[in-house]
Amino acid sequence: MEHRIVGPGPYRATKLWNETVELFRARMPLRRHRCRFKSHENCFTAAEAVDWLHELLRNSQNFGPEVTRKQTVQLLKKFLKNHVIEDVKGKWGQEDFEDNRHLYRFPPSSPLKPYPKKPLYQRDVIKFPEWNDPPPGTSQENIPVRPIVMNSEMWFKRHSIAIGEVPACRLVHRRQLTEANVEEIWKSMTLSHLQKILGLDSLEEVLNIKLVNSKFIIHNVYSVSKQGVVILDDKSKELPHWVLSAMKCLANWPNCSDWKQPMYLGFEKDVFKTIADYYGHLKEPLLTFHLFDAFVSVLGLLQKEKMAVEAFQICCLLLPPENRRKLQLLMRMMARICLNKEMPPLCDGFGTRTLMVQTFSRCILCSKDEVDLDELLAARLVTFLMDNYQEILKVPSALQTSIEERVAHLRRVQIKYPGADMDITLSAPSFCRQISPEEFEYQRAYGSQEPLAALLEEVIADAKLSNKEKKKKLKQFQKSYPEVYQERFPTPESEALLFPEKPKPKPQLFMWALRRPFQPFQRTRSFRM
């Protein structure tokens, strides 16, 4: 009895329903039964159906071994209501299925549930303020756009840092981020991270992004106690003091010396019932109605525990702070009760762990519209929460760090160099297309060298530059891009041809140089006698 694993994605609950119905109809053993002196072919008793389906669900990785027989009976009631099965008289439509010897059969046809048609939520493109964004209220429709031309002068200014010559610069302070900008950054990056973990192309079919409140995310990250529990600003949304006292009593059993009321036999059961009644009468489950599909989708990752924990961490950040606080306190109490060996049995029919799951699963996860497998899915989620609540209800540090770095980057100053990209309006970024590996290797080898080679030729052909300036820029280019330079000037002789040596002029002969050189005065013999 193999049950295919249904991964994360939209309509996961419907896919699980159809998968279970198909397996049940295809593999449930059928045989002849007698009832009231009448023989019925190809049918089964209610108890046989419960036995077989219970074993199927327990062995399924989609539901797990925590599924109880009572939950299996509830599922078969829904099968009868939706005409997956009918009694041998052809009756169906009501949830009167019981775990007994009553006979049931499969109808001739049992159509699977169609996927619900949900409105596609409009994708809001969140644009964060950039360095060159104009102040609010200004328009750029009539601003002339000057194209970027990479000439030799521009290249020299852009690459002056690489060669160690930094020209004069000025600091341009970025327009200050507003509170709304920061909230949108938190919301966008959080949802993008969740979408990446789930491996979905879009979250629009599992989550209404418009209902996600960015203020909740920020509050759940920063307004926490030393124990990691959310601190509420509005104290009226706190748990009632009597509920909180009851939870503390059971969580710290038997160390409850601060409990003033007298204790009696069955006292702990009454305290537990008080807590269960409060959580059972909440108007909305703790994980909220609009996040139901998101949490059910994450259940498809339970085979990858680390990814599932991270996805649950992010989903729990989307909760209202009061819901997150109630969930944190409830899960801590449930885990402590299950680990406390001194705790008396709270129920005679169930173990403590099973009782916790059965009692609180519906107040934690529930769909606004009736979903056929919501009870099994809620039990599966609560079981995983109890085993990993300390990690799941902790703020994901990697996500927090990445968002804080993003906000800090947008708040930094920018260095502008005179003449470099000043007063230039950049065109909007274009979208990428997938290319073949051969195209990628070609572009990697030649795509960046062609513009550089053209730039080098422009420097060489620039007649306005003197030989001294041209030699200086060519030396800078050779230092920054030696491969491109080597391809253009493979030998020293080819480089020398660019600057041919001028012939040295012959020394001019002056007329006085042809005359007899000056002779020193020689003393002669005197003619005087």
UniProtKB/TrEMBL annotation:
The keyword Coiled coil applies. It comes from the Eukaryota. GO terms for biological process: cell migration; intracellular signal transduction; positive regulation of Wnt signaling pathway. Keywords: Coiled coil, GTPase activation. GO terms for molecular function: GTPase activator activity. Pfam families: DEP, RhoGAP. Residues 24-108 form the DEP domain. Residues 201-393 form the Rho-GAP domain. Residues 453-480 form a coiled coil. This is DEP domain-containing protein 1B. The gene is Depdc1b.
